[in-house]
């Protein structure tokens, strides 16, 4: 059987996913082969260029001519939403391990979709909660203008309102924006206490650097709504220090995450993986085991097998796949270390708290997923 890694190889998310996601899928296939040699697994990959039409064209070709049974990774929420719809039509599985929009387990949920790592609801709520204790209640949003940014801003705004906070303003920029000067000046004059970055990857990195250059910090607290290890590495600790964020995986959490991360790093020139890379591995391995149990690659039946019992995942801990396709596991709160605290390359963050899975993700009945209408939370 063949699994496709549909990713961003050269664009703004390529450090978060890209070649590292392919390596993660290959590791999952190798580990599965040690359990069951009767099912040969081939990994293919392609660059969707962050364009939904290109992503859909690749997915159709894979299914129709290359017998691809599942597609994993799917960074860029617009691509993920389109591919998930296609996979539902073709009864194959979309493993949206690197896609963030919570709509994938909400109005756009499907019996053939699993969203593994995190989503905009968990990121928004977790970040708001991490800052609420400091009395930081007035937020200004810099939002990337496509599905990811819209969902991050929407879900963080709802979480902010629930804590009595308010939005002082917002601006949107297209993906790939290089100059944030006008937006940053508006944020500074808005009266906000928090500059919330509803973006990720290269866009977020550029915004954080420019906020420092414009002298917005420490007057404004920077709140990255989705930052990963590769982003912190690109920023450097001098710039990123003291940023607080939420994440589902960190390479140095425990013995299991360290062991897997070093395996991955051996093939990636000594780098350490992001949570997206870990998600590709875990989602792919869980999928392959469900194919073995169900005896089919029919998407709805395989996902039903994934939902049937909790998964003891070495990288994310105990994981439950809910009726809406949401993988539920613990989410952690981190703070970026000061340069003097780091013991070496990639020792960038310290865990300051953990949000139990039952609290970290949107309640099942609140997402408006047609698969679970009438279900209890």
Task: Please provide the ordered H/E string of secondary-structure elements.
Answer: EHEHEHEEHEHEHEHEHHEHHHEEEEEH
Provide the structure class: alpha/beta
What is the mean predicted local confidence, pLDDT? 95
Strand order of the largest sheet: 2-1-3-4-5
Euclidean distance between termini CA atoms: 36 Å
User: What Rg, in angstroms, do the CA atoms define?
Assistant: 20 Å
Tell me the total number of β-strands. 15
Strand content: 15-25%
Fraction in helix: 40-55%
Q: Which spans have pLDDT < 50 for at least 5 consecutive residues?
A: none
Number of alpha- plus pi-helical segments: 13
| Major β-sheet annotation | 5 strands, parallel
The coarse overall form would be globular
Notes on the structure:
The chain is of the alpha/beta class and 377 residues long. Helices cover 41% and strands 20% of the residues. It is built from 13 helices and 15 strands. It has helices at 18-35, 52-66, 77-90, 120-132, 147-162, 181-189, 201-213, 229-235, 237-240, 255-266, 275-294, 299-307, 357-360, and strands at residues 2-7, 42-47, 68-73, 93-95, 113-114, 138-144, 166-173, 194-198, 221-224, 244-247, 311-313, 317-321, 327-328, 331-336, 349-355. The protein has a 5-stranded parallel beta sheet with strand order 2-1-3-4-5, sandwiched between helices. It has a 4-stranded parallel beta sheet with strand order 7-6-8-9, with helices on both faces. It has a 3-stranded antiparallel beta sheet with strand order 10-14-15. It is globular. The protein starts with a strand and ends in a 17-residue tail after the last helix.
């Amino acid at each position: 059987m063949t699994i496709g890694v549909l990713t961003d190889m050269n664009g703004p998310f390529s450090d978060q996913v890209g070649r590292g996601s392919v390596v993660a899928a290959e590791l999952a296939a190798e580990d599965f082969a040690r359990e069951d040699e009767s099912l040969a697994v081939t990994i293919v990959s392609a660059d969707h260029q962050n364009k939904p039409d290109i992503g859909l064209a690749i997915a159709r070709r894979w299914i129709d001519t290359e017998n691809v049974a599942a597609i994993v990774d799917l960074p860029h929420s617009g691509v993920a939403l389109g591919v998930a719809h296609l996979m539902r039509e073709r009864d194959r599985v979309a493993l949206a391990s690197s896609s963030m929009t919570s709509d994938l387990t909400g109005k756009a949920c499907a019996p053939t979709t699993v969203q593994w790592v995190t989503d905009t609801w968990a990121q928004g709520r977790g970040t708001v909660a991490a800052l609420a204790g400091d009395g930081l209640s007035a937020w200004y949003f810099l939002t990337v203008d496509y599905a990811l940014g819209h969902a991050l801003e929407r879900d963080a705004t709802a979480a902010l309102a629930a804590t009595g906070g308010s939005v002082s303003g917002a601006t949107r920029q297209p993906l790939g924006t290089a100059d944030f000067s006008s937006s940053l000046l508006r944020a500074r004059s808005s009266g906000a206490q928090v500059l919330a970055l509803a973006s990720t990857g290269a866009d977020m990195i550029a915004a954080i650097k420019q906020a420092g250059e414009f002298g917005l910090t420490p007057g404004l607290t920077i709140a990255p709504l989705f930052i990963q290890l590769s982003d912190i590495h690109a920023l450097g600790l001098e710039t990123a220090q003291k940023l607080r964020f939420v994440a589902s995986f960190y390479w140095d959490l425990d013995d299991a995450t360290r062991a897997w991360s070093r395996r991955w790093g051996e093939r990636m020139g000594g780098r350490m993986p992001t949570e997206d890379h870990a998600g590709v591995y875990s989602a792919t391995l869980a999928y392959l085991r469900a194919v073995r149990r169900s005896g089919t690659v029919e998407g709805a039946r395989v996902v039903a097998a994934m939902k049937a019992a909790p998964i003891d995942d070495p990288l994310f801990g105990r994981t439950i796949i809910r009726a809406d396709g949401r993988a539920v596991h613990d989410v952690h709160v981190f703070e970026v270390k000061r340069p003097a605290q780091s013991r070496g390359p990639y020792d960038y963050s310290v865990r300051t708290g953990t949000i139990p899975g039952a609290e970290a993700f949107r309640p099942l009945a609140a997402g408006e997923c047609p698969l679970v209408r009438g279900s209890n939370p």
